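Request from the bench team (R.T.):
"We need a structural guess for the complex before ordering more zinc ion. Sequence and SMILES attached. Just send the tokens back."

Command: build protein-zinc ion structure.
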Amino acid sequence: MRDIFIGTDSGATTSKTCGVYDDGTPVTLQLAQSSTNSQHGTKIVVEGWIAGVEKFLAENQLSWAQVKAVGLALPGPYQSYGVLDRTANLPASFAGWDFFSDYAAALKQKAGRDVPLVTGNDGNYGGVAEAAKVRGTKKAGVLMLAPGSGLGAAYVNPEGLPLDGDTFAGMEAGHMPAPLHLLGLPEFACGCGRTWGCFEAYTSISGLVQYLEHLVPKYPQHEFHGSPQTMKEKAFSLRTLAQKGDPLALEIFDYQAKALGIHVANLSLALDAEFVVIGGGLIDPHATTEEFRARYLGGIKAAAEPWLFPAQKKTIQILPASMGELSQGIGAALVALYKFGS
Ligand SMILES: [Zn+2]
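Reply to R.T.: structure attached below.
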């Protein structure tokens, strides 16, 4: 009977359950998910996590006796380790919730013994799974940058664990300032409230409307002029337009690639990671063409290069993410393995 390590990935709306064996191999690559039900309170959320584990065990012919440890990925911010702070995606009553203690108690009741538990930020845990995939058995650091609605960032050390920081705000690197003189762009506002030109605004969906306001006047023939769409709708159509070669859309994503590349170089000066994994919807093979992805990754590499040290230029590998929706759950299971495996 092999030991297994469970990963619970709790999002605001859906929760996923994953598992790995003691050698780090995923138990399954099938996605097992259920509703988080946060509107019914914290007790129901914890019951949902437990039900997710039970279902996962049953579907894979496994038992509680095999569960050596559990990892829980949950989006921050936190007040302290395992204690949630106020967050936009969850009910206000969840602020101050000691989710770590509640889940540990529920696991103990179900398994009939203490089950070691570790918890952390979902983005960091996603980085852990991508890191394990790209570096295999090699001892090397991995930086992950994943532009989506915001810019997710994680650093995973050669032992496989993420940089969390002392107040769990480590690697909030999307809110570091971009060198605007290199980008040749005006200051974009950022959702975090900082006004120093956060990288997040130049690299993710969050800044697309500001790109449009700045660049649409440069394309007087563009279909956006006189279009009844809102700015937000126009912004959301850009990825599709870029796949058809629309020059405005391509210019915006070229800017995003350039900003992301500069940030890779920025972070390489602090972290010096051999592997850089780029996630997000622009490198998703289901959403973009091969030609577009090559252009985007090429733009990132070209923008990073001039600022790297010679040894870094030779070793750094900038690669697309490949774990998709499983990354945070598998990452949580892997952190449990790295912390509590023998
Ligand atoms: Zn910001």
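Two things stood out. The two ends are 15 Å apart (CA to CA). Residues 175, 190, 192, 194, 198, 200 surround zinc ion (CB under 6 Å).
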